[in-house]
Every structure is written in structure tokens, then in C-alpha cells.
Specification:
six-stranded mixed sheet, 25% strand, 31% helix, three-stranded antiparallel sheet, single chain, alpha+beta
């Protein structure tokens, strides 16, 4: 029996193809646009990615099956429980070097003024920046053409677990280049 995902959310096949890198460019762009606005699917993707990364290299298929089962359980049972996993660390990008090179702030920085900068990506027509809490909840996101942005006043407040930020380059052909996540905190 195939589970039916909650309306308006990603189904397990979309999550699996996105994480394995086998999504078609149009589907990948749609999935990334959805993830930028949907806290529930972002949290599920983070949880599945953590399960997938923890799998031994020789048994990736087993990890993928377990990850798919976890997504199915979250999609079918999660909305009824009204809660999310207590502790989820954000996972973004691959371990390899990202094509989006973040300039500031660096990992672990303490910011007074939330200003973010990165190097331009060849062929990019726009950039999508997103800021999330440590649990994966989306706090702020914007699509811009510049490589520097300042978060509007009042959007971010000091948080005990800090925040994560990442930038994706949106290419003219509909593909996107994902950046890695960087942790930061707000200071006095």
C-alpha cells in the first residue's frame, strides 16, 4: 500500500530522489522552492539526510529504505501528533566544496548586524538565501540578484541554539547550485 502524503507536501519519492541527486532539473527546482517555504518538509528532509549519512557505505540502500520509512511515518503520523522531532541538526549541501562560496559571516560568528555575503556564481540569475533555526524551522528567506543582503530589523532575535544560513544560486536554465549551511549567533 502506497502512503498518501499530506496535501501540499513532498512525497517520499520526491525526498529520496532529491537527496540522491536523481531529480530532474525542473522537479529539483520545484522541490527546492517548496523547501524554502515549508518548515515541515525541511525538517523531514534534514531527518532523512541524517539517517542517510549515518549509513555504512556498503549498505546505502538499507539506509535509503529506512529513510523512506521514516519519511512515510512522519508524513502520515507526524501531522496528527502536532509535534516535530525534539533535536534535529541542520544538514545542508554535500561534504565537498560548494559552488556557492560564502564570504561572511563564517561558521560560529557572533553578529550584531545580520549582513550576509557570498561570491557570485557564473550563470546565476538570482540567489535564494534562507535562515533557519537549529531545529530546521525557516525564519527568513529571500530571492535577490545581489551577492550581499541585510536581514530586516526585528526578524532575528538572540536564540540559545543560534541560526544557520545558506545561499542557493538560481541558474538561467532552471537548475540551482546549493550552498552549504553556516552557523551563526546574534550578540549584543
Amino acid at each position: 500500500m502506497t502512503p498518501i502524503p499530506s496535501p501540499g507536501h513532498l512525497d517520499p519519492h520526491e525526498v529520496a530522489s532529491y537527496l540522491s541527486g536523481t531529480s530532474e532539473p525542473v522537479a529539483r527546482a520545484r522541490i527546492e522552492a517548496h523547501l524554502a517555504d515549508c518548515e515541515q518538509c525541511t525538517a523531514e528532509l534534514v531527518a532523512v539526510r541524517q539517517l542517510h549519512r549515518g549509513a555504512p557505505r556498503g549498505r546505502r540502500w538499507l539506509g535509503a529504505a529506512a529513510a523512506a520509512a521514516a519519511v512515510i511515518a512522519v508524513v502520515l503520523i507526524g501531522p496528527r501528533l502536532g509535534s516535530r522531532p525534539a533535536e534535529t541538526s541542520p544538514v545542508r549541501g554535500e561534504d565537498s566544496i560548494s559552488a556557492v562560496v560564502s564570504l561572511s559571516p563564517r561558521d560560529g560568528a557572533v553578529l550584531v548586524t545580520p549582513v550576509f555575503a557570498w561570491r557570485p556564481v557564473a550563470g546565476a540569475t538570482a540567489y535564494r538565501i534562507a535562515i533557519t533555526r537549529a531545529d530546521g524551522d525557516s525564519v527568513w528567506a529571500a530571492s535577490i540578484r545581489d551577492t550581499t543582503v541585510r536581514v530586516p530589523d526585528g526578524v532575528l532575535v538572540p536564540a540559545p541554539d543560534g541560526y544557520f544560513w545558506y545561499v542557493d544560486a538560481l541558474l538561467a536554465d532552471g537548475r540551482s547550485v546549493a550552498g552549504t549551511a553556516h552557523e551563526f549567533r546574534l550578540g549584543p
